[in-house]
Specification:
The complex is a heterodimer of chains A (about 300) and B (about 400). Helix content of chain A is about 35%, strand content about 25%. By secondary structure, chain A is an alpha/beta fold. Chain B is elongated, with a radius of gyration of 25 Å. Classes of the chains: A alpha/beta (about 300), B alpha+beta (about 400).
Amino acid sequence: MSILITPETKIMVQGITGAFGGKHAGLSLDYGTQVVAGVTPGKGGLFFAHGDVKVPIFNTVAEAAAATGATVSAIFVPPPFAGDAILECVDAEIDLAVAVTEGIPVKDMVRVKRAMEGRKTRLVGPNCPGLVTPGTGPDSTGGCRIGIAPGYIHKPGHVGVVSRSGTLTYEAVYQLTVKDIGQSTCVGIGGDPVNGTSHLDVIKLFNEDPDTHGIIMIGEIGGSAEEDAAQFLADEKKRGRWKPTAGFIAGRTAPPGRRMGHAGAIVAGGKGGAEDKIEAMQSAGIVVAESPAQLGEAVLEAIG
Amino acid sequence: MNIHEYQAKTLFAKYGVSVPPGAAAKSAEEFDTALAELPEGPTMVKSQIHAGGRGKGTFTDGYQGGVKFCPTKAEAKEIAGKMLNNTLVTVQTGPAGRKVQTIYFTAASDIKKEYYLAVLLDRATSWPVIVASTEGGVEIEKVAEETPEKITKVFIDPAYGLADYQVREIIFGLGFEKAEAKNAAKLIRQLYNCFWDTDASMIEVNPLITTPDNEVLALDAKVSFDSNALFRHPDIVALRDLNEEDPKEIEASKFDLAYIALDGNIACLVNGAGLAMSTMDIIKHYGGNPANFLDVGGGASKEKVVAAFKIILGDAHVKGIFVNIFGGIMDCNVIAEGIVEAVKEVGHELPLVVRLEGNNVEAGKKTLADSGLPLVSGDSMADAAQRIVNLVA
């Protein structure tokens, strides 16, 4: 089992005819993921060719969903149009929209997030590496890969991974795999200040997933999403519900007032600092890695 | 992106926000023309730099105060001459200070009372929020800490915009007098419109003032914009002042590299923002000091690596370089070739430790080893971090 996606999940790619979207649609197909449709307005009726596979392209998300049964969309649309692409998924009642696009204006996301309230669609991202549920084939193929993560570093198993970062997530997954610790699902929620799914949302899903036996939560400076998730875990623990959890916070050495690459990674007005987050996580009983080289060890320590 | 006070007030004026009459000068020759635009009488002289604490700042030649009240225009001209091209050090500039290249003259206002007003994004709700306080001229963080009851906050539903009752909440919350209320309400609305229309990330007016004539004016103005939205605001891009930015950061932005200068001596070159922050952290963890944050992007292309090396080596404080790359999709060997080429092209003699991991890593490590370059390959992130710290120590 896993959360949000399984190897059977059918996905569409918005922006499949762009270089970035096309490359990663191909890599997902290689991984064994069911990429069943592409969406590029004006290119409906054409096909996206990858080796022997031909993926039909549609003009709209609704058409793609109706014709192929795709329930998830990976969004690789350029930033000025990405907010609109997410709204199109909401209108078509897609289960999950994964926005990989980096650089969407904050105001667009503020409006999109408001428009999504009470609607069926869940958003992961934007500015995120996406999700992977590893498969049982060689190098974890046969799984579901949505987004841009390297598939081969994964290994099927029982640790849930949630993170705001891209390469730091790969680092964590790789450290786990090398230590022979497999993953149930890895979720990159993205580095933007306004995003769809939070650390807390993903942790709730992991808590409910019988096949996830432990969790690693990787956060960074900015906002208070890690504190919220830690508080939830602490409250759950009091009710006797607990899955071993490890964590890490990037940006202990970041200067205040500066955005560290990610639009959301900023310590502003004395808030969003790494130490507060680490303290909240430790007091919730999370094993916090001292350095990014010890992510795998922290998980081992947490699960005992 | 940040802009100067005088630019922010010009922008405010476009939205109808009342500001004191003012004019900017970029050279001593422009002082008379600028002052001619103001009424006779008391005049403020304000150094224009992108940093707060100007009034309490000190110039490097010992002159005190980057914002001055002058009883006459003649005096204002004299004081402006002392500030222009002088370097102002404030609590926010760091010890190096900033060179004042623009002077802003404004008519001095009669102040009845000072307030604080800001519009920004609340991250917890993902809604815009207006933060207002009766404590004008005081840092809002201090007010929030010591007297939170003096702060009024309204969260604005992006689907509906700022509602009338919310404007009233601020007016009553701050205790504006009846004769001032209409002007205050107008200004709050105009500031919010300015925030929303221009894709600002923050508008801060500290202080906002009332006058004996019941006028409500923005006496100071600090505005920053969402960089992601600049593509739809060419008029705002035109306000960018490159003199206010670190030249290395400007160079980095040309290559789409995220670079932030820090004060340590170990330069970092990393792919991905999260890993780049963590790399700074691990250097510190082993007792070193990072010289910068640098994200070359998830793909770490050769062109970007070359540009990144050049920028890093432009920092005279750098005593060693730590390259930390996780090649996920990207072939580590391609990255290694890029590093070798970059080092050969820019030529340097500093200790260099490279940690590569991921796709085709063995070939990448072999490329580095066979290059004949004096670089050290780290076995792991921890090993590599310790090596560079030891080499620089």
